[in-house]
Design a protein that fits this description.
Helix content is 38%, strand content 13%. With 343 residues, it is an alpha/beta fold. The strands form three sheets. The protein has a five-stranded mixed beta sheet.
């Protein structure tokens, strides 16, 4: 059966890390254990009675604030937001409808301020959109054992791109991050939901699994890139809640505890508990999460893929996408028709 990661308490950090100053290890340094049962608490199809009531309450409050329109009774018009999206906001706020409404309102204002819908529809050339992927986590074209898309971010790859990154205005970098998050939520998640996965068909895919590779990353480069990482992390936490699933950090250097002291404040508590450090010797842990055929060789799997590569799509995905290839530029996967569309 599919596996799920949860941290367990431990007094010592894992291989390749050091205990932060103060003598007490942060939970991110704890070993992790694999459970055999998938964890769907708070997800569609697995709601408790109180969570179902919270979702109803949330919708009612959003409707009164003109932030949500339910589907028409005859089914001719869809709801303005699907339940999977609404549940992300509720999970991020522990199913407290009032708190979730506040974050939803903030995100709605943020989307209007940055004209997100039009930005994704017509704000990029295909060439710029594809080029921007080099600076951020990249989809391998594969999925973990639960069916979540597997992303990889090799930090040292940015060293060669630093001058290019610096040449891009802060506003345009921010817009590129938005575009890539829209691609993830409107294309990758929808495509993976369409495919067989743990919990299908009632439980949509609404998060990713990520490998953050710190191999060959120097302290100076991490310091230079900290603002680059921060803007992406804060944007995700505030406006794309609960889209970050399990985050595995590999090849962590001895100075990582210092880096962690900078970045842990960028994430809410729920996200911090999803981050796990495997150090320089991850062993077979990644294979407990991802089948060997879908895990890049560099991380102990069999997949021919590096961070510089385009997604190496599996056969199920190839069978669905036109020409068996990833679409170029912004795209949407339509769950109703099972087809790729322009946004």
């Amino acid at each position: 059966m599919a596996s799920n990661i949860h941290k367990k308490s431990a007094s010592a950090p894992v291989s390749g890390t050091a205990t932060p100053k103060g003598g007490k290890a942060d939970s991110v340094f704890d070993p992790i254990e694999i459970e055999t049962e998938p964890h769907f608490v708070g997800h569609l199809g697995h709601l408790t009675e109180s969570q179902t009531e919270a979702l109803k309450n949330f919708k009612d409050q959003l409707s009164k604030a003109s932030l949500y329109t339910p589907a028409s009774e005859d089914g001719s018009t869809d709801a303005s937001h699907d339940d999977a999206t609404l549940l992300r906001f509720l999970r991020a706020r522990s199913f407290q409808p009032e708190a979730a409404v506040k974050q939803f309102q903030s995100t709605a204002a943020w989307r209007q301020k940055h004209d997100v819908d039009n930005l994704y529809t017509s704000g990029f050339t295909v060439e710029e959109f594809e080029d921007s992927k080099r600076f951020y986590p990249r989809w391998t074209g594969r999925r973990d054992k639960k069916g979540l898309p597997l992303y990889v971010y090799r930090i040292s790859a940015l060293d060669l791109l630093q001058k290019e990154l610096d040449a891009i205005s802060a506003e345009r970098r921010y817009q590129r991050i938005i575009g890539l998050y829209e691609l993830m939520t409107h294309f990758a998640f929808q495509l993976c939901t369409h495919l067989p996965h743990t919990g299908s068909p009632i439980t949509p895919v609404t998060a990713s699994t990520s490998i953050i590779d710190l191999g060959d990353a120097s302290f100076s480069s991490m310091f230079r890139l900290r603002n680059h990482f921060q803007e992406a992390s804060k944007l995700a936490t505030a406006n794309y809640p609960e889209t970050l699933g399990t985050i595995i950090i590999v090849n962590s250097p001895s100075f990582f505890p210092t880096v962690w002291s900078w970045i842990k404040g960028w994430f809410d508590e729920g996200t911090r508990h999803k981050i796990h450090v495997l150090g320089k010797e991850p062993g077979t842990t990644l294979l407990d999460l991802v089948d060997g055929s879908n895990l890049p060789k560099i991380y102990g799997g069999e997949l021919e893929w590096t961070f510089a590569d385009e997604p190496n799509l599996d056969d199920e995905i190839k069978a669905i996408l036109p020409g068996g290839e990833m679409p170029k530029g912004p795209a949407v996967f339509n769950l109703k028709t099972g087809t790729v569309e322009n946004p």
